[in-house]
Design goal:
By secondary structure, the protein is of the alpha/beta class. It folds into two domains: about 200 residues, Rossmann fold (3-Layer(aba) Sandwich), CATH 3.40.50; about 90 residues, Rossmann fold (3-Layer(aba) Sandwich). It is about 45% helix and about 15% strand. The chain contains 13 helices and ten strands. Strand 4, helix 4 and strand 5 form a beta-alpha-beta unit. The radius of gyration is 18 Å and the shape is globular.
Length: about 300
């Protein structure tokens, strides 16, 4: 599992390639809450999500990259991040996405010059296709979440969050395959309580923690393109067992409501996965204890604005 030393090394490695994203402190009543909340706006990161952190760290720590370049499977955001990183580093990129990937995310990936192959009904099927293709070409595989360098790169999000808001007692993070929450929980290591938030329709970490091991979970709902991992990563799971304080689930309606509130209050377009952590607070799926100082990661904004504003 990644530790703070590896996350600090990742931060040095990717400096100059990623943005330090801003924080905004919101009075509770603006979101219908009785307490203030601090949002970290990682949807303003390059390529529209936190994902370039792990992508850059994986590629830059790999040494020489084969002539075939890099290859990845993604529901959309990781693919855009890998495509962006490859574009910045002068590398070829090939991205495999499932049929559920949105047009907004496909356009984002292609805008960075990557070759896109859409195949399979789920992320797991796209991943299998990408692995077969990598065996043919020799391209460097950049896994979306289950790789030490990716976990360490995503952990730099928590490093920044804590540096800018050291007073937080609870940090809410949306979970898919677990790369983001795994890296962030490894950084906080209990100094703040890290709360996992997943859609009810994509409960991979929730189910794994209940079972005591990663297990297959259903994948559907409004956030499936970004949070729809069939099973959490093996590398992050011990981190979650040690340092994730709770795993809560939210409905698709709650996620849509959080999207609308981010737009109405802040004029921010968050994709469903990006609004999922906030949905836990607004819906009451997670109720902070008295005196808690709560932070929320708004992790992605690759959505068609019409899907939020309409």
């Amino acid at each position: 599992m990644p530790d703070r030393t590896e996350i600090l090394a990742a931060a040095r490695r990717i400096a100059g390639h990623v943005r330090q994203t801003p924080l905004i402190r919101i009075a509770g009543p603006e979101f219908g809450l009785s307490h203030p909340v601090t949002l970290k706006l990682e949807l303003l990161q390059h390529a529209g999500s936190f994902k370039p952190r792990g992508a850059f760290n994986r590629i830059l720590s790999a040494g020489a990259v084969p002539e075939a370049g890099v290859i990845a499977a993604s529901g959309g955001n990781h693919g855009a991040a890998v495509a962006y990183a490859a574009h910045r580093l002068g590398l070829k990129a090939e991205i495999f996405v499932p049929e559920l990937a949105t047009e907004a995310k496909l356009a984002r990936i292609r805008s960075f010059g990557a070759t896109v192959t859409q195949t399979g009904a789920t992320y797991a099927e796209a991943l299998a296709a990408s692995e077969a293709r990598a065996a043919e070409t020799g391209a460097l595989q950049v896994h979306a979440y289950d790789h030490p360098a990716v976990l360490a790169g995503q952990g730099t999000t928590a490093l920044e969050f804590e540096a800018s808001a050291p007073d937080l007692t609870h940090v809410l993070v949306a979970t898919g395959g677990g790369g983001l929450i795994g890296g962030m929980a490894a950084w906080y290591a209990g100094r703040a309580k890290v709360i996992s938030v997943e859609p009810q329709a994509c409960p991979a970490l929730h189910d794994a923690l209940q079972a005591g091991r990663p297990v297959p979970a259903p994948v559907s709902g409004v956030a499936a393109d970004s949070l729809g991992a069939r099973q959490v990563g093996a590398l992050m799971f011990p981190v979650a067992q040690a340092h994730v304080a709770a795993a809560v689930l939210v409905s698709d309606d709650a996620i849509r409501d959080a999207q609308r509130r981010l737009w109405d209050t802040l004029r921010l377009i968050a994709e469903p996965g990006g609004a999922t952590a906030l949905a836990a607070l607004i819906s009451g799926a997670f109720v902070p204890p008295p005196g808690a100082r709560v932070g929320v990661l708004v992790c992605g904004g690759n959505a068609d604005p019409a899907s939020v504003v309409a």
